């Protein structure tokens, strides 16, 4: 027993020694894992080079595209022929593939030899030999003459541009047929078949044996996406992502790549791993320097490798006692099959001895052990090298698909892999060690490359048939240029129908007026609330808009979800205090704004028929809403009612807004050219600025208005039936609003996913998708959301990620399925984008034609998830618009929150428009001309005897018949009563050389109790003051003529007789109205021995006379101060109220009452009405209340209060001082409008009113002052223009040269007033040369001037003797 153990130990020791000896000799062939990883990385780099179009030409690993796009999916069936040419024999097969419940493959084959003279002769002879063999096979097997599809396995390197085309790159495997390299072998085979005749086949596919192996295994295992051959030669193929294959057009899907890895190392990449034996084999081969990797691993060279090693070892005395036989010296005597026998587990050493004896050697036991180990090292190196290259392929597949772990099957064929007892195990083990992230299954190809050719043919035939069916289906959704033109033209027709009154009710595109008349201009400012209801969420926002240098929009919001039972419940639930109002209440609490009343914009993204900016009746629900009792009702009223019932807060709902209009306004805030809004999201809609003259459903022809087209309803009248598909009709049938919103159902995000689902169901039911299995998820409506379209169509998304999305939806897909799904998504979204583009082309072309332009530049503001997130939608839409509207340059700009920000901007614009309309809409030239003409009519009415009693402009004769002519002289007293300050003057006029005027005056106060007391008290007070003045002037004995300026509306019957019509300017002395004020004053002054009043004049007349003294062309007088009035020289022939036709007389217009009869109601504002209501004389002096200094400050105050309440100013804060009447004076308006320190003054004045204004507030207040004062100047200019125009007409001159005398604190003190007035007058009466002359001494001097003129005229009428007496009596020299 001991002897047995000793013998066993000795033998083991002997084996160990022999193995170590071989290991030392062949150490270069033993590769570590690190070396294998290095080789794998090098091979991957070679793959990259081969796939790149830039480096392929120089790449050793050619990575040839095979144009095989898919592995079998199990649905293939039919009868096919296959040819397999790749060795000394070739095979012809008939392959029957069936799918009758259980997949099966039946094969019949014949093998035909290829003589050496054919292999190395002419190429034509080779292909004729193949064709004749094929003919023989068909006849033997009695295959019917019906044209059979044929696959051709051609196991040589070919460049393919199609699956049925292959250009031979080089021969291998001892083939040398002439005239074939560089030619299309499929074409050569077809020619040979034709020449042989009686063979009716259709060569559909050319495949490499490696590809055939993958396809054969792929039929049984659909995870098989790699094929490897390790036999006489070696190669690998695998399914590569198309996006990585530069050599072929297209990025979608996969294609099988024939690596031709046998050439790995031909560029020196393996030089450090090539041994002296590899070099010997290469040098002795028929293709030195080529296929180096193949020479290191394949069965053709493995046996020769072992022979060379044994010969070298024997020569060095390491084997066979140094003896070498002739057979061992002879090339090709040691075959790869010998290695397979030697490495058998049990019989290996015995087989080794037998083989060595056959070679003429006398091996010892040691020699047999050593030779066996040499074979092991050589075959193991082959397996290791194949494993390293295969690991690179597997890692590439895993990384391309972005997987952590890859599950894949490798189909393998080849004699070495099949026959060698250890090779598969070694290969599998090393591969799994090198790529632990891959779960790899190896499947031996049972029928080899022959069956594979049939499989490729079957797949090609299946794909072609499926492709036709799919193409036919998707063609239904493809729109031709003619289709798109028809959509554009029909959309234009429907736009026009919606605008016309006679067709609006039946139009499917409703063209709803939005009552938004302009886009933002950048001056909008303030704080606003916004509500956004348009989907499953309800949003409440506060939006702060700033203008000027710090122009910005800031938003704060909170989102509330709307339950389905509310969306589809009753309107009462929507209106109830438990929903919208409770959300608003929560938000106001959250923001600490419960007690703040801000203007609010309500974005209500459903079709509404608006009758005003804040009035909108719901036309119909969309987007899945079906709440009852809402359609036909005013949504603003419903919201107001709900808020009122809650009784917690108050909101000023200024505007109800469509999201599309909001989108346009948001973009227009940044881009003034933006006049179109587009929503391409859950819904689809467009709005645009239409000319008012085209909108027959709204009154007015001037300007523009935004029209909410509601184009989603396009097609409801069947005008699109020619392009609607059965899939569209399926979607419509399953919708909540069947037959409605047809265009929206073809273009919007709510429905595109559902259209895709309908198409997928159709394709699956026909076996074209998902292996014909319609799963429960696929049957579920709404499962395929539109967001998946955007994700699936992303250029950055690999097909594996598409498969991941589909798997997430419960749809188990192949790569082919993923490609088809992606294609379906693309067709559906492309059609949607094209339809939107066609509709948009109709809109922009309409705008261009509206404006009479040959070319239009315009911007479209866009919002919506479909436009924003879909990778191609925007580009297709824009290109469609460009094609269909070539005369329009259309820019598309993305909107930032059109629903929230847009609602606030619309509210701001609405309030600003309301404000400007309220205050400034009459500032246009046309409006001012209209007012001027109205005033001219009032002048005529006032002058007419019959019309004067009802005229508001009373046109009072003053009996002043002449202006000064320069000859006046004397000493006069003038009284001036027109306000709380009463003035008395002494005026000396002399004409020595140059006429001069000297004046002395004193001002006396008129107490409030006298102003509001009795007439007697008032005139006694005047007489008392006059007596005081005469005493102080020491002129009691001179009896000077007295002129009386009485600045209130009076009817004069003589120069010294004047009846007060009514008090103005806060005067209310009783017993005076209707009385002769001259008589009342004379009665009071007689007590003091003062002469009677010679002339009574209005302050306006006094102003004209004062200025007339300096400029004899002055024939108009105006007062613009605390009050306002005008007078002018009228032709006597036009004054019905006074006898006589000769000469002229000054008329006191009393224009302050202009409009008292309602003539100005269209331009009066709510602020004017509020001022009138709070005045002492409501309904009177309405023109004066719009223009004069007494009311201007108060007008500004009322506007500021309103703006603060609306959130435009002071962040909505209102102080008690600001609410107090009279705290904002007209002098403040003048101070604020100063160009340099106006803003500083504004801040100071507002601070005194308890307000802490921002810079923006000060700018806004200054602008308000500007608008109010400018309005005053414009209105005065219009009425003055009426007077000047009348004077010109009276004189009959083509051009009027005249002077206007002016007085009044507003005109004098306001920094901009005079300039604005002059400019507007000259614009309104361009045919007049008007000089404006400021009255230096006002109406007081004027009274003296009237007296002086009256005295001069009296002199001229009396004889010279009477003159002398009068002069002496009056103290006139």
TrEMBL record:
Broadest EC class assigned to this enzyme: transferase
EC number per UniProt: 2.7.1.1
Zinc among keywords: no
Domain of life: Eukaryota
GO molecular function, one term: D-glucose binding
Domain Hexokinase N-terminal intervals: 22-219, 470-669, 924-1108
Start and end residues of each Hexokinase C-terminal domain: 226-459, 675-909, 1116-1349
Reaction catalysed by this enzyme: D-fructose + ATP = D-fructose 6-phosphate + ADP + H(+); D-glucose + ATP = D-glucose 6-phosphate + ADP + H(+); a D-hexose + ATP = a D-hexose 6-phosphate + ADP + H(+)
Topological relation to the membrane, as annotated: Peripheral membrane protein
Keywords, in A-Z order: Acetylation, Allosteric enzyme, ATP-binding, Cytoplasm, Glycolysis, Kinase, Membrane, Mitochondrion, Mitochondrion outer membrane, Nucleotide-binding, Repeat, Transferase
Gene Ontology biological process terms in this record: glucose metabolic process; glycolytic process; intracellular glucose homeostasis
SUPFAM superfamilies associated with the record: Actin-like ATPase domain (SSF53067)
Family annotation (PROSITE patterns): HEXOKINASE_1, HEXOKINASE_2
Subcellular location: Cytoplasm, Cytosol; Mitochondrion outer membrane
Gene Ontology cellular component annotations, sorted alphabetically: cytosol; mitochondrial outer membrane
Membrane-spanning intervals of the chain: none
Pathway info: Carbohydrate metabolism; hexose metabolism; Carbohydrate degradation; glycolysis; D-glyceraldehyde 3-phosphate and glycerone phosphate from D-glucose: step 1/4
UniProt family annotation: Belongs to the hexokinase family.
Function per UniProt: Catalyzes the phosphorylation of hexose, such as D-glucose and D-fructose, to hexose 6-phosphate (D-glucose 6-phosphate and D-fructose 6-phosphate, respectively). Mediates the initial step of glycolysis by catalyzing phosphorylation of D-glucose to D-glucose 6-phosphate. Plays a key role in maintaining the integrity of the outer mitochondrial membrane by preventing the release of apoptogenic molecules from the intermembrane space and subsequent apoptosis.
PANTHER family associated with the record: HEXOKINASE, HEXOKINASE HKDC1
Complex formation: Monomer. Interacts with TIGAR; the interaction increases hexokinase activity in a hypoxia- and HIF1A-dependent manner.
Protein name in UniProt: Hexokinase-2
Organism: Esox lucius (Northern pike)
């Amino acid at each position: 027993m001991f002897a047995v153990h000793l013998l066993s130990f000795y033998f083991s020791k002997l084996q160990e020694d022999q193995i170590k000896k071989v290991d030392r000799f062949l150490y270069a062939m033993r590769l570590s894992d690190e070396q294998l990883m290095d080789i794998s990385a090098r091979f991957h780099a070679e793959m990259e080079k081969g796939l790149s179009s830039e480096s392929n030409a120089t790449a050793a690993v050619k990575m040839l595209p095979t144009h095989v796009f898919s592995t079998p999916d199990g649905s293939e069936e039919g009868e096919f022929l296959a040819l397999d040419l790749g060795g000394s024999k070739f095979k012809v097969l008939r392959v029957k593939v069936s799918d009758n419940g259980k997949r099966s493959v039946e094969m019949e084959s014949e093998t035909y030899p290829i003589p050496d003279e054919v292999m190395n002769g002419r190429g034509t002879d080779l292909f004729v030999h193949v064709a004749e063999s094929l003919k023989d096979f068909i006849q033997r097997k009695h295959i019917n003459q019906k044209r059979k599809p044929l696959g051709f396995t051609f196991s040589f390197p070919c460049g393919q541009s199609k699956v049925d085309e292959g250009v031979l790159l080089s021969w291998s495997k001892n083939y040398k047929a002439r005239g074939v390299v560089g030619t299309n072998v499929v074409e050569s085979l077809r020619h040979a078949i034709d020449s042989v005749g009686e063979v009716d086949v259709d060569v559909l596919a050319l495949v490499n044996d490696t590809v055939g192996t993958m396809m054969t295994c792929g039929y049984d295992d659909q995870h098989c996406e790699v094929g490897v051959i390790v036999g006489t030669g070696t190669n690998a193929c695998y399914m590569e992502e198309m996006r990585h294959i530069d050599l072929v057009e297209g990025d979608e899907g996969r294609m099988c790549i024939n690596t031709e890895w046998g050439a790995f190392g031909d560029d020196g990449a393996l030089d450090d791993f090539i041994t002296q034996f590899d070099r010997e084999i290469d040098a002795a081969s028929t293709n030195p320097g080529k296929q180096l990797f193949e020479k290191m691993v394949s069965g053709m060279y493995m046996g020769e490798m072992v022979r060379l090693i044994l010969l070298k070892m024997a020569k060095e005395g390491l084997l066979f006692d140094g003896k070498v036989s002739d057979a061992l010296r002879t090339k090709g005597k040691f075959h790869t099959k010998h290695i397979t026998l030697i490495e058998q587990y049990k019989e290996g050493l015995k087989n080794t001895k037998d083989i060595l004896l056959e070679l003429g050697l006398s091996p010892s036991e040691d020699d047999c052990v050593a030779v066996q180990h040499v074979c092991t090292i050589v075959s193991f190196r082959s397996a290791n090298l194949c494993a390293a290259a295969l690991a690179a392929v597997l890692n590439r597949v895993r990384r391309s698909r972005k997987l952590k772990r890859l599950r894949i099957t490798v189909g393998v064929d080849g004699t070495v892999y099949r026959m060698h007892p250890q090779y598969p195990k070694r290969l599998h083990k090393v591969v799994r060690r090198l790529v632990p992230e891959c779960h790899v299954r190896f499947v031996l190809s049972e029928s080899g490359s022959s069956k594979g050719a049939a499989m490729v043919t079957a797949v090609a035939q299946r794909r072609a048939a499926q492709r036709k069916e799919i193409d036919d289906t998707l063609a239904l959704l493809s729109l031709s240029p003619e289709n798109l033109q028809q959509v554009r033209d029909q959309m234009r027709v429907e736009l026009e129908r919606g605008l016309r009154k006679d067709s609006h009710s039946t139009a499917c595109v409703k063209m709803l007026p939005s009552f938004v008349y302009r886009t933002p201009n950048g001056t909008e400012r303030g704080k606003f609330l916004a509500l956004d209801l348009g989907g499953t969420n309800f949003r409440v926002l506060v939006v702060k808009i700033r203008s000027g240098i710090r122009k910005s929009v800031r938003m704060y919001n909170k989102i509330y979800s709307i339950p389905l039972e509310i969306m589809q419940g009753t309107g009462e639930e929507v209106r109830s205090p438990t929903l919208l109002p409770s959300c608003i209440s929560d938000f106001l609490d959250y923001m600490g704004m419960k007690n703040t009343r801000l203007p609010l914009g309500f974005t209500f993204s459903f079709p509404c028929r608006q009758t005003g900016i804040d009035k909108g009746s719901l036309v119909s629900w969309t987007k899945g809403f079906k709440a009852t009792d809402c359609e036909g009702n005013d949504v603003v009223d419903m919201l107001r009612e709900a808020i009122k019932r809650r009784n917690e807060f108050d909101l000023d709902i200024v505007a109800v807004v469509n999201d599309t209009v909001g989108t346009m306004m948001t973009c227009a805030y940044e881009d003034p050219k933006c006049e179109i809004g587009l929503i391409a999201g859950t819904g689809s809609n467009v709005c645009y600025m239409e000319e008012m003259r085209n909108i027959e459903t709204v009154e007015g022809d001037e300007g523009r208005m935004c029209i909410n087209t509601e184009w989603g309803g396009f097609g409801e009248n069947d005008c699109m039936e020619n392009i609607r598909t059965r899939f569209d009709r399926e979607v419509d049938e399953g919708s909540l609003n069947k037959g409605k919103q047809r265009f929206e159902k073809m273009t919007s995000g709510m429905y595109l996913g559902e259209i895709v689902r309908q198409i997928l169901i159709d394709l699956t039911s026909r076996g074209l998708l998902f292996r014909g299995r319609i799963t429960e998820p696929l049957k579920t409506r709404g499962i395929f959301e539109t967001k998946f379209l955007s994700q699936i169509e992303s250029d950055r998304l690999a097909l594996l990620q598409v498969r991941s999305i589909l798997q997430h939806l419960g749809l188990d897909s192949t790569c082919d399925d993923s490609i088809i799904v992606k294609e379906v998504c693309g067709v559906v979204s492309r059609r949607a984008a094209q339809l939107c583009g066609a509709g948009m082309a109709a809109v922009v072309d309409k705008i261009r034609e509206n404006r009479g332009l040959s070319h239009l530049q315009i911007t479209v503001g866009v919002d919506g998830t479909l436009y924003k997130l879909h990778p191609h939608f925007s580009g297709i839409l824009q290109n469609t618009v460009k094609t269909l509207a070539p005369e329009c340059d259309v820019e598309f700009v993305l909107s930032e929150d059109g629903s929230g920000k847009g609602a606030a901007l619309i509210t701001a614009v609405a309030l600003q428009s309301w404000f400007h309309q309220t205050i400034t809409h009459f500032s246009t030239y046309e409006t001012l001309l209209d007012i001027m003409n109205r005033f001219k009519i009032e002048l005529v009415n006032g002058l007419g005897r019959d019309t004067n009693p009802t005229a508001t402009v009373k046109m009072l004769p003053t009996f002043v018949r002449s202006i000064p002519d320069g000859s006046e002289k004397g000493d006069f007293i003038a009284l001036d009563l027109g306000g709380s300050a009463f003035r008395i003057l002494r005026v000396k006029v002399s004409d020595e050389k140059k006429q001069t005027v000297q004046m002395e005056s004193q001002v006396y106060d008129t107490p409030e109790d006298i102003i509001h007391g009795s007439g007697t008290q008032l005139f006694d007070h005047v007489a008392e003051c006059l007596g005081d003045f005469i005493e102080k002037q020491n002129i009691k004995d001179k009896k000077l003529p007295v002129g009386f300026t009485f600045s209130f509306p009076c009817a004069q019957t003589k120069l010294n007789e004047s009846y007060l019509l009514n008090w103005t300017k806060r005067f209310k002395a009783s017993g005076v109205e209707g009385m002769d004020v001259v008589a009342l004053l004379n009665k009071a002054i007689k007590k003091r021995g003062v002469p009677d009043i010679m002339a009574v004049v209005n302050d306006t007349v006094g102003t004209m006379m004062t200025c007339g003294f300096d400029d004899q062309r002055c024939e108009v007088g105006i007062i613009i101060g605390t009050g306002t009035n005008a007078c002018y020289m009228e032709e006597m022939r036009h004054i019905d109220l006074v006898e006589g036709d000769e000469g002229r007389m000054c008329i006191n217009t009393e224009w302050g009452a202009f409009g008292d009869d309602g003539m100005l109601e269209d331009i009066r504002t709510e602020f004017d009405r509020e001022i009138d209501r709070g005045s002492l004389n409501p309904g009177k002096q309405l023109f004066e209340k719009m223009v004069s200094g007494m009311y201007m400050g108060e007008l500004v105050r009322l506007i500021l209060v309103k703006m603060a309440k609306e959130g435009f100013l002071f962040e909505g804060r209102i102080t008690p001082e600001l609410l107090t009447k009279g705290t904002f004076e007209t002098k403040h308006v003048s101070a604020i409008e100063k160009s340099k320190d106006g803003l500083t003054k504004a801040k100071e004045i507002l601070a005194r009113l308890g307000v802490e204004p921002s810079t923006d507030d000060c700018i806004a207040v200054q602008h308000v002052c500007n608008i109010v004062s400018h309005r005053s100047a414009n209105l005065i200019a219009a009425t003055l223009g009426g007077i000047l125009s009348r004077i010109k007409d009276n004189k009959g001159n083509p051009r009027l040269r005249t002077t206007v005398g002016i007085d009044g604190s507003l005109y004098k003190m306001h920094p901009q007033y005079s300039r604005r007035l002059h400019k507007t007058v000259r614009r309104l009466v361009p045919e007049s040369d008007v000089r404006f002359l400021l009255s230096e001494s006002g109406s007081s001097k004027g009274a003296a001037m009237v007296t002086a003129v009256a005295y001069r005229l009296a002199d001229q009428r009396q004889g010279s003797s009477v003159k002398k007496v009068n002069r002496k009596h009056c103290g006139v020299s």
